[in-house]
Write a structure and sequence with these properties.
The chain has eleven helices and five strands; from the N terminus they run βααααααβαβααβαβα. The protein is of the alpha/beta class. Strands 3-2-1-4-5 form a five-stranded parallel β-sheet. α10 links the parallel β4 and β5.
C-alpha cells in the first residue's frame, strides 16, 4: 500500500452487500416491514449484533409476543439472499489489486460468516471490526476510536464509507474522512477525487 493512501473502512450491509432485513425477513414471516418493526423486540437485534446474546437466544426473544421462530429455515433463507451491490465487487477487486488496506467496519451479528461463505468478501477485505466481536456499534464514537486504536493510525488516515448519514457524521466527528454511499459509480467518483483510484 502507498503510505500516503488512507486505510479504507467499509460498512457492509447496503454498502457492499444487499441487506435482507427490508424484504427477505419480513416476507419470511408474512409481514410487511412496518408490521415486523412493530412486532419485534426493541433491543434483541442490537444485543445480537453486539454479541451479547447467541443466535438461539435471539430467536427466543426476537418477537414481543414470544412466537416460535423456525431459526434454521430463516438462517438458510437469509444466507441464500446475500448478494453484492451492483458494481461493488469489481471496485473492491480494483482497490485490492492496488494494494489498498481495507477493513470491514460493520454492525452485524455472527451472520457475517454467512456473507463470507456465500460471497467471499475476505478475498478483498478483512473482517476486522464487526460489532458481534467488538461489542461496539456505529454511530457510537467508541466504535470509531476502537478502530483507530487497533489500526494504530491517526483519524485522518482513515476513510470510512457507509450508506447511513448518521454513521458518516460520527466518523467525521472523530476526525476521519468519510463518504456517504450512494452507489458504486458515485463512490468511484469520490475515490477518484481523493486520488485513490484513477
Amino acid at each position: 500500500m502507498n503510505a500516503l493512501q488512507p486505510i479504507l473502512l467499509f460498512d457492509v450491509m447496503e454498502t457492499l452487500v444487499t441487506d435482507p432485513f427490508r424484504d427477505v425477513i419480513p416476507d419470511f414471516f408474512g409481514l410487511s416491514l412496518d408490521e415486523l418493526l412493530a412486532a419485534k423486540h426493541p433491543t434483541a437485534w442490537i444485543d445480537f449484533e453486539k454479541g451479547l446474546i447467541s443466535q438461539d437466544e435471539y430467536f427466543r426473544v426476537c418477537f414481543l409476543d414470544g412466537r416460535t421462530v423456525d431459526g434454521k429455515t430463516l438462517v438458510n433463507r437469509v444466507a441464500a439472499s446475500y448478494d453484492w451491490l451492483d458494481g461493488m465487487r469489481p471496485l473492491l477487486a480494483e482497490l485490492h489489486a492496488r494494494r489498498h488496506e481495507m477493513h470491514a467496519f460493520s454492525n452485524y451479528p455472527v451472520w457475517y460468516e454467512l456473507i463470507e461463505a456465500r460471497l467471499g468478501l475476505s478475498r478483498y477485505i478483512d473482517w476486522t471490526f464487526v460489532s458481534c466481536h467488538t461489542g461496539l456499534r456505529k454511530p457510537d464514537p467508541q466504535a470509531y476510536r476502537h478502530a483507530i486504536d487497533i489500526l494504530g493510525v491517526d483519524p485522518p488516515e482513515c476513510l470510512f464509507i457507509d450508506d447511513r448519514q448518521v454513521n458518516v457524521d460520527a466518523a467525521l466527528n472523530v476526525g476521519m474522512d468519510a463518504i456517504l454511499m450512494r452507489g458504486a459509480e458515485d463512490l468511484r467518483g469520490e475515490l477518484r477525487r481523493r486520488h485513490i483510484i484513477d
